[in-house]
Design brief:
It is a single chain. By secondary structure, the chain is mostly helical. It has one domain. Helix content is 81%, strand content 0%. The termini are far apart.
Length: 102
Amino acid sequence: MVIGDLLVGRNSPIEQQRSKVAGIGDGQTEGSFVNTLKELIGDTNAIQKDSSEMTDRMLKGEAVDLHDVMISAEKAKTTFQLLLELRNKALDMYREVSRIQV
């Protein structure tokens, strides 16, 4: 019964998916995609800045753990690679669409 309540409740994944599908025709999907993309770019930029600041603090001799600096650098690298792959996939998709003959 608990599992059934979770699957049918208002905040359940099924209800959230239904509300997303129902909202496709009203233009909310486009805005949410654009907002999500802007958030991803902003987050990537913030992570890059944080990594740069940590590295600068370490180079200046401030008390910063090396493993924290390395973790922030890897996090910045990974988020940038994700953003780059999304850009590459979007370009590939654009090229495919432009090849379609009408």
